[in-house]
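Hi F.,

I've been meaning to write this up properly since the lab meeting, where we talked about keeping a consistent format for the predictions we share between groups. The idea is simple: the sequence comes first, exactly as it goes in, then the structure tokens exactly as they come out, then a line or two of notes. No screenshots and no reformatting. I'm using this chain as the first example so we have something concrete to point to.
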Amino acid sequence: MRTDTGAADGTRATPRFPHLKHDFAASLVVFLVALPLCVGVAVASGVPAELGLVTGIVGGIVTGLMPGSSLQVSGPAAGLTVLVLGAVGQFGLPALGVIVLATGLLQLGMGVLNLGRWFRAISLSVVEGMLAGIGLVIIAGQLYAAAGTTAPESGIGKILGAPEALADALGSAATLTSLAVGAGTVAVVVLWQRMPRRVRAVPGALAAVLLATAASAVFSLPVATVEVQGLLGVIQPPGMDAFAELASPAFIGTVLAFALIASAESLFSAAAVDRLHDGPQTRYDKELIAQGAGNTVCGVLGALPMTAVIVRSSANVRAGARTKASRVLHGVWLLVFAALLPSALALIPIPALAGILVHAGWKLIPFRQVAALWRGNRGEALILVVTAVSIVAVNMFEGVLIGLVLSVVKTAWDASHVKLEVVDKGAGPIQAHLSGNATFLRLPKILDSLEALPQDRPIELDLSGLHHLDHACRSALENWAERHTAAGVDPVRLLVA
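Output, unedited:
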């Protein structure tokens, strides 16, 4: 029997799936990276652990199949943990599905209207400040989870209450044991990068969770473990009662916060992933539609919201992925695990997951970027810090809005350069020439300079050199001219182009 291995002309046939070997291997790596993060994010968000797996599955299979970014991997993200926890606490778990569903539909609409590219215009300082604030709140909150105690609701309360909680923990052997498991998990994740390359084939987060689980089981440590309800038991599509919340302004604000932050995080992640490979670059509007489709499905299933996740995405690229098949297969492996081995989740110590998220929160804080900005552009560094502090002190949505407002104000200030040149020849009128961009931000400086001119001399104010003159400046200059004219000298002449 003869087997054809080439084309009719004798050349070797091109394989139907030339990159399957690379994508298959990469999918296993991404699965091992995603598994502990999916579970950890869900537990930290105050929802059943299986919902994190559901979002990971949807992110892999649904979003993974859609066009946009070829190598970016989506799933539940630590960056939305704080927002989800607050939403579940305020509106209840049944309402989470409606929030995520509305977020997905909003993202779909923005993608269809070609608004995805506009997220690239958001100041990088605001985004990094947002991530830093999220990281601080995650670290503070997960310290309580590692200790097995209840965390205060507000971000500032978590941070200010940490010393007292630590002091109380010193008097309890069980609490110290729980903290030791969390600290050991962080240590393993950090030190894993120094292990031999063959050992590092197993992701550090997975290795840390496995070691913590084994230690807790062997030594019968008194630590809390993940509660398991089963995959089908946690999938609860939102009911009509939950949709009634859409009439609440607070609920609508939460949806907008989810959509803004999830979209910005996904598209900034896409830009970062594009720099890691030479393959097709992200089509931002298509990627926003893909994220919206995934969140819509997650909302229907009552699961967590998704974003593109840089940790999984970079692992996918480093593992040699060539096409979107790797991210789709990683979703398949999560589905197989959730269907066949859900009881394995019940063995995982919660302090170990808290340790994973403490490390993830630390990685969100851009220490190097803050230092570089402070040396080169202190205004941008200030926006980053204020955004982060606002998120900790107030909440996610308002903190990001404060950062965006500061960014717009700074941009307007930088753009409103104006120059006043005064020419006095000793005889005749004083000539004052304004050039640049005259906006309300520079108005006090302009008026101070004009009011310092002699009151007993005629003045010609030449505005022909201005590229922009806003309404506030025009009105103020006209009022100044009227006041100067009232002093009994020749009227001020305003010269315009």
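Notes:
Residues 163 and 169 are 10 Å apart (CA to CA).
The two ends are 90 Å apart (CA to CA).

If this format works for you, I'll send the rest the same way.

G.
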